[in-house]
Amino acid sequence: MIYDYREDVSVRKNQRWVPPSTQRHTVISDYEKHNIVFRRCRGILNKLAPEKFDKLCNDLLSVGIDSKAILKGIILLIFDKALEEAKYSFTYAQLCKRLCELAPNFEPPGTAGPATFQRLLIAKCQDEFENRSKAFKAYDKDGYLDMEEEEQRHVAKLKMLGNIKFICELGKLDMLHESILHRCIKQLLDKKKHESISDRAEDLECLCQIMKTIGRRLDTNKAKALMDQYFERMLKLSENQELPARIRFMLQDCLELRSSDWVPRRAMRDQGPKLIEQVRQEAARVSLRPNQSLILKPQGPGMLPSSTKKTSIPPSKTPQSLLKPQMAVPLNQPAKVPIKQVAIQEKPKPVKKRTNHKKDVLTALEIILQELEKTGAVLDATKSVKEKVQNKFVPAVVCTVMKYGLPKTDSDRDTLSTLIASLKKENVVNATHFMEGFNELLGQLTELEVDYPLIKSSIATYAARAVIDNVVTLSELCEPMENGAYYPLIMLCLQRLQKLKDKEWLVKLVNDSKINLLKMLPEIDQNKEKMIDILDGKNLSFLFPLLRLQGDIWKQIKTDPNPQTLYKWIKDSVDPSLHKEKGFINALTTGILKYVTQESSLQDGMDVTIVPDKVVQEKEKALLNKFKPLLQRFVHENLNLQMVALYALQTHCFHTNFPKGMLLRFFVNLYDMEVIDEEAFLNWKEDVTDEFMGKGEALFQVNQWLTWLATAEEEESEDDDD
Questions:
Q1: Is it true that the peptide bond before 488 is cis, omega within 30 degrees of 0?
Q2: Rounded CA gap, 501 and 464, in Å?
Q3: CA 105, CA 120: separation in Å to the nearest integer?
Q4: Is the dihedral of CA 681, 686, 690, 695 positive or negative?
Q5: pLDDT reading at 597 higher than 90
Q6: CA of 56: how far to CAs of 39, 44, 64, 92, in Å?
Q7: How many Å apart are CA 184 and CA 508, to the nearest integer?
Q8: Nearest to 652 by CA among 665, 639, 640
């Protein structure tokens, strides 16, 4: 048999290993394609650094993002990296910002509009936040953990905190609305049923992470009342001995951070990723510092000049100067003749004797107030205060004057209010001085309430008189009392104003000041139904007739749900001047929505967490269609009033815990029925306000449909141009 070497070579060629990447595939499955894309994405993310950011962003956009599945996969990869490398959260958030602007949108079959990168990212953030501690709590079991479990627990905890930090970095770049971040904080502070205080340690650690990362951005004038409430609860929690000491110290660090105007101590500063050039510059700065170890020092007697070495002089004849320690003379310099050093004592600088110390001022003020109490001579007291008080002590004087009257009679407090008004006329006190003194007194309210149980009534008298005497405005007075702070002080102030003046004057004052009385209530009572009850109880319902109207409309609909009957009642009972008022449209829309949903999708026994069946949805639509002419009659061609109707719908969904699909169904139906115009929907989307609860969740539910609406409107306008 003849051996054919060529056959052996061909066999070996066929058996040789060939890299899969070099093989030609006629057909490639989606699974393989996704794996190739995700492998490239991982490689790019592993190389992500500040100096290569732009190039790697472009590389990531060119990996082949041609489906929603790939877009979702990229988001998952970015999230995994951000959670593993929390120090680089800012860089990954910037990457998301860039992808949000440049990544393509997709419209998979069966959906009404394109799915944007931002919407998918928000959905992922929500999922990660709600499941933040599940992996971590899996290791919270009785007994000790072995070394491997302890390590896994530590990794899970780092990922949990990394998730919170990444969400905050997205918030810094406006990828997440501030209302979403506030909702996260409220959820972390909220105590669940059957949950002990020690079980909340992980949530509170996440809360501290949020405050350290984005607290400065959230602490605006608009959100000050909310932030004050958060930090009041954090202060109480930091004093709770049931919490681990580590968590209490974290809370104390956050309290200290806010008190120092969000300027962190050096130890708390988060040194994020740096450019290579920055690292080199820092290294150069360090190398320029003098190295103390290189300074030459004498190492022993042999290294000293001969003039400093010991001599054999008997102790009895040793000069006194030799008994004193001598300074080592450098080797390259001649020894200097020692000169007797005379100690020169610096005379202490004369300290200027300060006059008008705060303590002295308040002591003098006490004497003035005692004299005023005896004589009632307000002008003399005003003159004395003006002579003795420097401008910087005026707020303390205002606070002391009000405190002085707490144990006194109403007549005495009235005299003290007259004194403050007189000081205002003499330009000693202004609105800022009064509010600073007023806030100082409110800060002592808890302590003073022990000795003076009716202190809020006394303070309400001072506040009412200050408004009447034009020392401050009502809106300025209300600022420290937002979100139920010091409640029911605001109601007592309004009652006192009515008593001192009259109803008509107070109604005009409240309307002119444009205060949102709903925001003055405790957060739990911030709904219109509760507000109506509170105002009724305080005999102040005359301030908001439209709120009363909402209750009347609801009673009318319950009595007879016929739209024609309701319209006739409105014509007969409601002043025509109110028909274009926002409060009237809000009351009307709320009443109709309440009736429609209670008769259909919110009937007793309905599960709001699932979409109702088709029969219920059709009934809901038919009931809304019955009231279509009535709604059109009042909001037709008025975008502002249509926005009011949309906010009424948002608020209704918020108070019913956002039943699944309800907001989207009503948006679609109101659009199809031509009750609300496209422009009103888009204006509602862009409008930023904290006046109505639930905007973040509402946007999350209808954002996809609104994107479709905006796209459809643009296409329609292009067709019209053609």
A1: yes
A2: 10
A3: 11
A4: positive
A5: yes
A6: 14, 6, 14, 12
A7: 39
A8: 665
**CATH-assigned architecture of domain 31-268:** Alpha Horseshoe (1.25)
Number of H helices, E strands in the chain: 33, 0
HSE toward the beta carbon, residue 672, CA cutoff 13 A = 10
Quote the distance between the C-alpha of residue 630 and its chain's center. 40
Indicate the DSSP class of residue 472: S
- φ, ψ at 514 (rounded to 5°): 55, 35
Average pLDDT over residues 258-262: 88
Q: Rounded to an integer, what is the distance from CA 714 to the centroid of its chain?
A: 35
Distance CA 126, CA 100 (A): 17
Q: What is the Cβ-side half-sphere exposure of residue 83, based on CA atoms within 13 angstroms?
A: 21
Please indicate whether the domains covering 31-268 and 545-721 agree at the CATH topology level.
yes
Phi, psi (degrees; rounded to nearest 5) at 499: -70, -40
pTM comes to 0.42
What's the CATH architecture for 545-721? Alpha Horseshoe (1.25)
d(CA 181, CA 230): 13
35 CB neighbour count, 10 Å cutoff: 13
3-state secondary structure of 654: helix
**Mean pLDDT of the region 656-666:** 91
CA distance 81 to 83: 5
Find the DSSP H helices in 47-146.
53-61, 68-84, 89-102, 117-130, 134-137
Residue 334's alpha-carbon distances to 157, 172, 329, in angstroms, are 68, 66, 8
Average pLDDT over residues 491-511: 90
What pLDDT is recorded for position 627?
Answer: 92
Q: What is the mean pLDDT of residues 299-323?
A: 44
Q: What is the mean pLDDT of residues 62-70?
A: 83
* DSSP 3-state of 486: coil
Q: What is the mean pLDDT of the chain?
A: 78
454 with 492: CB under 8 angstroms? no
Cβ atoms of 642 and 680 closer than 8 Å:
yes
Q: What is the CATH number of domain 358-527?
A: 1.25.40.180
Sign of the dihedral defined by the CA atoms of residues 145, 151, 155, 161, in that order: positive
User: For residues 267 and 125, what is the distance between their CA atoms, to the nearest angstrom?
Assistant: 29
Give the H or E element holding residue 247.
helix 245-259
Can you give the C-alpha Rg of the chain in angstroms? 37
What residue ranges do the domains of the chain occupy?
A: 31-268, 358-527, 545-721
Q: What are phi and psi of 106, to 5 degrees?
A: -130, 150
Report, as an integer, the average pLDDT of 395-409: 90
- Between CA 596 and CA 649 the distance in angstroms is 12
